[in-house]
Amino acid sequence: MVEIRYAREEDCPRIGAVNAAAYATGLFLANAFPQATPDERAEYMHFRAMQTLLDPSVCTLVAIEVETNTIVAVAQWRGIFSEERQSIVLSDEGTAFVKREFSLEPRNQDVINAFRALVQAKRERYLGDEIVLDQLCTHPQYQGRGIGATMLQWGINKADEMQKDIYLEATAAARSLYSRLGWEMLEKAVLDYGLYGGEGVDKVYFMRRPHTR
Ligand SMILES: CC(C)(COP(=O)(O)OP(=O)(O)OC[C@H]1O[C@@H](n2cnc3c(N)ncnc32)[C@H](O)[C@@H]1OP(=O)(O)O)[C@@H](O)C(=O)NCCC(=O)NCCS
């Protein structure tokens, strides 16, 4: 059984680990940070999770496996506001952690820029006042048990209450899950890492879920 709650500062190391593990076999990270070890990726994702906690327009949710009190999945929603979310204040240690310079090197900046430009161009084209799902990942050991769908249902309920649609960029792995829960395809794009000195091709799907209330 899983329970969903807003993320806290002390969750961020595990959020980084879940994120790095979920994307470990993905082409983007392999091309963007070709020499990074799994631990280095997890540390970088920990840093990014802390930065996101401080962004008032995004709320991070975690799914906890109740029996083991372990974080097993993470979702980041842009545009869902709540009292709980607004009260996050980092400790002095956490503040120092997010303020330091932290860049994962070496990196293929052309790959990172190409991915960002693609996402940005489509958001400019399609985004109005939708809620945006910036991130969803389940630790590989816990995938296929309905946890991703439970995380999505949390956001769907909020979006329907607010009478707002939900926009997202989907990986090939997640596309059928989103379709099943009501997302419609806006556009498909191909990201050819070979054009930027990398290897392989990713498909990216741009999708929107109309609100149902
Ligand atoms: C996509 C993801 C979040 C789904 O999480 P989950 O907890 O396994 O989700 P659920 O159990 O509710 O649903 C599983 C669905 O994902 C698909 N899936 C993708 N990868 C899977 C895997 N390794 N194991 C099982 N199912 C997987 C299944 O086909 C299933 O779709 P369906 O219900 O339409 O058949 C998870 O696979 C993941 O973290 N993937 C890597 C990161 C990623 O691609 N995130 C999506 C960004 S848009």
TrEMBL record:
InterPro entries: Acyl_CoA_acyltransferase, GNAT_dom, Trichothecene_AcTrans. It comes from Penicilliopsis zonata CBS 506.65. CDD domains: NAT_SF. It holds the Pfam family Acetyltransf_7. It comes from the Eukaryota. PANTHER family: GNAT FAMILY ACETYLTRANSFERASE, N-ACETYLTRANSFERASE DOMAIN-CONTAINING PROTEIN. This is N-acetyltransferase domain-containing protein. Residues 45-212 form the N-acetyltransferase domain. One of its GO terms (molecular function) is acyltransferase activity, transferring groups other than amino-acyl groups.
